[in-house]
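Entry 14. Ran structure prediction on the chain below.
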Amino acid sequence: MATTTKLLETLGSLERDSFVSLLSNLMDESRYLQNNPPELVPEEDRVVKHVLNSLLPLSTTTDGGPLILNHVTYFPGRGNLIVEYPGTVPGKILSFVGCHMDVVTANPDDWDFDPFTLSIDGDKLRGRGTTDCLGHVALVTELMRKLGETKPNLKSTVVAVFIANEEDVVITGVGIDALVQDGLLNKLKEGPMFWIDTADKQPCVGTSGMIPWKLHVTGKLFHSGLCDKAINPLELAMDAIKETQLQFYKDFPPHPKEQVYGFTIPSTMKPTQWSYPGGVINQIPGECTISGDVRLTPFYNVNDVIKKLLEYIDDINDNIQKLETRGPVSKYVLSDENLRGSLTLTFDEVSSGVACDLNSRGFHVLCKATEEVVGNVKPFSVAGSLPLIRELQDEGFDVQACGYGLMETYHAKNEYCLFTDMSQGYRVLASIVAQLEDSE
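Output, structure tokens:
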């Protein structure tokens, strides 16, 4: 306990001037950090430059301090940065990862202030990336800077990993996936890993997986005044989706563990978009496509769901004459013409949800630190997806997740965070370091 208290005194509190200055520099780059390829490809090295400016004077690179810096780049201008404060006990390690240096897009015309410049309104720090995730980049940089300045004698090695390309799941081989593949993070498996990119100051212990789907429906185009000679793909799509949803909720009902992890909603399957080739209002189109997603809590397997969804659609196709129709002349089979409506279900990139280990040392120290600093601890789960966490978990990392932005401003216009929240976050991270220093 004496060691913990002394270390917390050494690390102190988040220094507002230093934090705000660094965050302001990062925000000045945010226009060039938007991740929406191919139109907008982020240049994360613009952030790395500022983090290095803060940490290089305290690094072994310049003989100025203990920090070990490793700038790893797989694509020009899109670097990752690994920062290490060495401890004295081999294999005793903890890490803070997930602080990503790209942001989602922002349209200045939709905002009440410039999204690409830090503006301050009392406790509010405003701009694109303040919550997700440049505020966390600045936060963890400040913690590593304080370690480098004060040079506490730690048994634990503390590692921070600032990553590229978190906001885009299509492009690979740029960020943490490449670092893992190259073995650069292998030693982080020896201790708890804390993913610093969620919100609301509480442990985030679960996320849902996502299965994006498209249902293409083929009918028969005809004049709407002679609808008995048409197969209406819009009606067929609606009825097929309803049947599919009923089967889905029967086979994948609310899971008992969802309450343990604090999920507010169970697994869901629903349409979100509708498209058709166009035409005049008195014409029944020949085809349409409905797109949507499944949000799957981590207690179900995405491959099992995909298999079931395909079975549902196959069954509808095989028995389409039994599917309930609409009105006295609506039909999905034209026997005289030997025509049947048909459904084709396809999937885009899928991701699995994650359930953090509630028995791990990392979870317990995070909860204790949160309760001490924030005043309460209430772990929660979200139906959103964080696929990188699941991939790390599958690779053998003990990942816990937390963050100090605001959930209500994630990916939203007029994004902001609160300095007081980030200040509490700093103290939580410092407490984690101190607690693990005292543990075996």
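The longest strand covers residues 209-218. Will compare against last week's run tomorrow.
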